[in-house]
Design goal:
The protein is mostly helical. It has one domain. About 70% of the residues lie in helices and about 10% in strands. It is built from 2 helices and 2 strands, in the order E-H-E-H. It is elongated and about 75 Å long.
């Protein structure tokens, strides 16, 4: 069976966190490929898996952003309500 499994170790996670903290913007993914019949097939498997993982990363980011916007909007509504009540007095 052909597969490209992501490799995640504490060492890799720490290294990538340090890279991002220094301003790195490239997202690295590491894979162990099994069952590929050629380099081209291995490349295709890793490309497909990378796109899937990047899609998940993007979805997670957009959900986080949406939650932040909802919190901000709620805070703004509370502030506007207080301001309105103060000016109505």
């Amino acid at each position: 069976m052909k597969s490209a499994d992501q490799i995640e170790t504490p060492e890799i996670t720490d290294y990538l966190s340090s890279f991002k903290n220094f301003g790195g913007v490239i997202d690295f993914k590491f894979f162990k490929v099994t069952g590929a019949n050629s380099d081209r097939e291995a490349h295709s498997l890793t490309a497909q898996k990378t796109l899937e993982l990047l899609g998940q990363d993007n979805d997670n980011y957009l959900i986080k952003l949406q939650n932040l916007l909802v919190q901000t909007e709620t805070l703004n509504l509370k502030l506007l309500t207080k301001l309105f009540l103060l000016t109505a007095e």
